[in-house]
């Protein structure tokens, strides 16, 4: 019988609630156990800190008692106007202070004025200062031992003060006081990285392991306490501002971090020694213990569920096995038919690929024959004109020679030489086009190569009135000198052809490390032709003005030097040719 769905959901919710209650109980137990252990450790540390503090104070409290009956101090108290008696007392107190390590020893008369002091010869000397407002003075004058901690009224340095009643032979009353500093003790607390502090009865932090806590209060001072502290000037001029603390369940929160507080009373001055320990590790450990317990419970539950599900799965597998065998047999027959059909399709594809390769070979042969025919027609056309002119010119030269026109013969011969040079240039372009696949990487000075090219084309530049703007000298490009000259000659010749009949014609050259650029202000190149101008035998010029190999040669020479050629139309008119070389080493083939 199946369980209703609402009962299943109710059981799941009940189990989840019990699981969460169990985790809460585990977390609380872990927290309580850690808190008790941390409190025990803190109390042990506080006992160590208290012993060190009491030992530091007890080390100096008997020094005034040892000097209580010293005749030099009695004479200084009896004859305060005698400079010799005061001088002896000063030297005695200075010597004892240096030997014992006391911050200061000083003798005070019954009115509170300091008669002699160990620091009599220093800038912050106590001599002449009146300390009748200090509790240690009033308590000692009444006959009890005075103890007091506060900020020095003269030096501004905090210290612990002892006061002991003193009387001369003639009964003159006075107080012998000693001041010790506890700064070294506070410094010894810092390496432990514990938050240790001494709190007085007014909740003022008198000593602390961290400087920012010192002379702040754990709670705001009452008007009566602040008035009493001002009368004794115990912490003057400290502001005694309260710490920004949040209290919750016996825990403190300060500067964004929670702390537990352990405390130990100190008999002296009704002090309390506190140790603040961060509770974040306790939370982390409690979370970790709870997480481990929760994961273990979940893992055990999942294991039981897996075992149950596995049992059901095995039973279902047995039932499905027979059905699967039947389906496998039917599927095997279908796969056999599909395999036969696939083999037939593969055979058809192999035959189609063979036909495609045959057609590709035929197309390559056709393209080669077309290129060869185009090249032959271009060469025949280009060479035919200068040959015809050369034949006519030779006949004219012969006639001129027979008639004795020597000057005209010389001009005719020069014309014939130019025609021969034109034929040589046409054939040299064909040779260069055939040989541009060799590597042309090298080093060439741009200004030297340009000078050589202009020696060939300078007359043509002048005849057309073209203004040529040269780049700054000193640029070196990564090409062989001969290859660079061929590139410059073809680019400048193309620009001269394009600038024919253009007013204010200008060719601008610009170069830098790894790049060269040439642009003109001619009619430019149509956008649809930018990808075709570097193809062999493609030309936009009229018939008889070139083979269409110039830019193809430039592209091959640049690529052979591990660079690239970029051709673009300028927005203001004209064409722009850019040669770019990468900074990497040339590739090795």
TrEMBL record:
Q: Which CDD domains match?
A: HATPase, HisKA
Principal subcellular localization: membrane
UniProtKB keywords: ATP-binding, Cell membrane, Kinase, Membrane, Nucleotide-binding, Phosphoprotein, Transferase, Transmembrane, Transmembrane helix, Two-component regulatory system
* Span of domain Histidine kinase: 378-585
- Give the GO cellular component terms, alphabetically: plasma membrane
Q: Where in the cell is it found?
A: Cell membrane
Record field: catalytic activity: ATP + protein L-histidine = ADP + protein N-phospho-L-histidine
Q: Which GO terms describe its molecular function?
A: ATP binding; phosphorelay sensor kinase activity
Q: Which SUPFAM superfamilies match?
A: ATPase domain of HSP90 chaperone/DNA topoisomerase II/histidine kinase, Homodimeric domain of signal transducing histidine kinase, Sensory domain-like
Q: Which InterPro entries match?
A: HATPase_C_sf (IPR036890), HATPase_dom (IPR003594), His_kinase_dom (IPR005467), HisK_dim/P_dom (IPR003661), HisK_dim/P_sf (IPR036097), Sensor-like_sf (IPR029151), Sig_transdc_His_kin-like_C (IPR004358), Sig_transdc_His_kinase_DctB (IPR017055)
| UniProt keyword Transit peptide present | no
Residue spans crossing the bilayer: 288-307
A Pfam family that this protein carries is: HisKA
Name of this chain's protein: histidine kinase
